[in-house]
Amino acid sequence: MSAPTLPGAEELLAALDEDQRAVASQLTGPVCVLAGAGTGKTRAVTYRIAHGVVTGVYNPTTVLAVTFTARAAGEMRTRLRELGVSGVQARTFHAAALRQLSYFWPAAIGGGIPRIVEHKAPLIAEAAGRLGVAVDRIAIRDLAAEVEWAKVSMVTAEDYVAAAAGAGRSGAAGQDLTTVARLLSVYEDAKTERHVIDFEDVLLLMVGILAERGDIAAEVRKQYRHFIVDEFQDVSPLQHRLLELWLGDRTELCVVGDVSQTIYSFTGASPRYLTEFSRRHPDATVVRLVRDYRSTPQVVSLANNVLARAGRARSSAAVELRAQRPSGPAVAFETYDDDESEARAVAARIGELVRGGVKASEIAVLYRTNAQAEAFEQALSQAGVGYLVRGGERFFSRKEVRDAVVLLRGAARSQGETPMPELVRDVLTSVGWAPEAPAARGAVRERWESLNSLVGLADELAASRGADMPDFVAELGERAAAQHAPTVEGATLASLHAAKGLEWDAVFLVGVSEGLLPISLAEGDDAVEEERRLLYVGITRAREHLQLSYARSRNTGGRATRKRSRFLDGIWPSEEVGGRRHGRHSDSRAGRREALTAAVTEQDADPDLVERLRRWRAEVAERIDKPAFTILHDTTLIAIAAAQPRELRHLAILRGIGPTKLEAYGPQILAVVRGEDPVGNQSEESS
């Protein structure tokens, strides 16, 4: 497989919009990029690196790009490779620090690096036992989270009580600050006795080495000269200190972030490093990315509206998104009697979308707490819709995937003349893959979905890169290290926190009620505003279809005591349509139009007329060389076929028919409705 050729500087910059070009053109730091959701920040940053390499400003081996997740790092490496750039290090803070710690440990400390414990739970339980503190599984989890907060905030056991009180923390798992401070101390003792370290220690130890050993700090700074840090709003004090030591007295730093997506403050992350960047670096170049290429105007409008209602609590560093995609379906707002009804209705709607051509892997159900997932798992199973729960067993840890990778490695050593996708199919057939999905659901279907995603990845790499079998196996190894799983065909169930950084064609935000969003545990204005940002993150995951819903009662027949989230006050529609409570998000100009057609489905429309309208749309799209959906959306065609308007004024009140569409296509649409040839009714604009 031949490596892609690095484009020229002019070609690189020409592929970007004006704001992205400003990022890619500013090759020396400090640079602060305030990037809204869906605005192409990864594209801007990778093109900036490629631009620096092609112009000779950067040696790729001296660039370190730091991301929030291993998956994001893997995606950045893939994009750079596709641009013809190799040698750039793209890693998480932990991965970069561990690489350095492993290299410098023998010289700085001596001996072998201690084993890193993957889970704190056993050590937390032991520490609690030594103190005589009774704990269960949930208490251990909460205490572990508090230990992590203290360590990423660089708070020692001796300083914990004062620091935690100052941060408004009240302890954890029902234990007061003094008890938690004692547990911190005993936890560190237990680690020392066992000669182990935890993940936070990787950063702490590297910070200590760089601060105390000038020779090692000089060596690291000689290696890395240009730094890019993504998701800068989520940087912790410990990560920021490590970054400062990497930089030394240099300012070759580009940071990228969005204060409106600050949702990890409870872990010790702080947006102040982003919001105060210009104060720390008075000569910094600040670029705002505001053009949203991900979501429809309807989704973008709702996202902006939710943030705008934060009032004075909204940061001046927040960006207001500007939608770049064509108009899409209205955002739906649904109220249900109980949780079970909500889950059943959402599952049914997902089934409709899948039958309508939306891939199940492009649909997500997002919720505030993981406890909400069970009802939707059950409803989707009953509806015959495949699903996967994000945050469950890791893809590359599944037995069928591990077995498949072993066999694929063997096949890579003796590929012969068989095309890679065909060879992958042959290998996977031996471990249970078949061209057709099994009729059975549950574990059998999940195993098939896992193997089928490997087949899909093989096809994709062969088509896009001309990859052979060794290339495919190497890609699997890199993805396994980054936990970058291939797409599994099933609807995604995920918490709002787990959804950050992802996107889908259709998103269902469920349980948007007081007590869940904001969650009842959110105390104080800052905590509540973080919940608002969590809703914003959920909204901006949707490309086209978006539905928000909640249930008035938890149980069937229960008291209807729940109220919708305060974040949607003034936004949630109250129209009664079709004899049931139903709403569509709209601006004031389109509100009447959307209310009139909100409940229309394809069953309400004349099927022959729908088909005629679709044929007309396809002909127009081909004639003007534009995608069909930019002419009129399917929902608009269905509304037309249901209403069967005979005059332009009747057509004008339907959702999706604005003044421009009416002028361009109105006479043609009416001709189609009458059963006439629309060609003779073309307006000048549509010809």
Structural overview:
By secondary structure, the chain is α/β, with parallel strands linked by helices. It is built from 28 helices and 18 strands. The strands form four sheets. Strands 13-14-12-15-16-11-18-17 form an eight-stranded mixed sheet. The chain has a six-stranded parallel sheet with strand order 3-2-6-7-1-8. Strands 4-5 form a two-stranded parallel ribbon. Strand 17 (576-577) and strand 18 form a beta hairpin. The two termini are 45 Å apart. The relative contact order is 0.09. The model is unreliable at 575-599 and 683-687 (pLDDT under 50).
How are the SSEs ordered, and which strands pair?
Elements: H1 9-14, H2 18-25, E1 31-35, H3 41-54, E2 63-67, H4 70-82, E3 89-92, H5 93-108, E4 115-116, H6 121-131, H7 137-152, H8 160-166, H9 177-194, E5 196-197, H10 199-212, H11 214-223, E6 226-229, H12 237-247, E7 253-257, H13 272-275, H14 277-280, E8 285-289, E9 291-292, H15 297-308, E10 322-323, E11 332-338, H16 339-355, E12 363-367, H17 373-382, E13 387-389, H18 399-412, H19 420-429, H20 443-465, H21 469-482, E14 491-495, H22 496-499, E15 504-509, H23 525-539, E16 542-553, E17 576-577, E18 580-584, H24 591-597, H25 607-624, H26 634-643, H27 648-652, H28 659-674
Parallel strand pairs: 1-7, 1-8, 2-3, 2-6, 4-5, 6-7, 9-10, 11-16, 12-14, 12-15, 13-14, 15-16
Antiparallel strand pairs: 11-18, 17-18
Helix pairs in contact: 2-3, 4-21, 5-10, 6-9, 8-9, 10-12, 15-23, 16-17, 18-19, 18-21, 19-20, 25-26
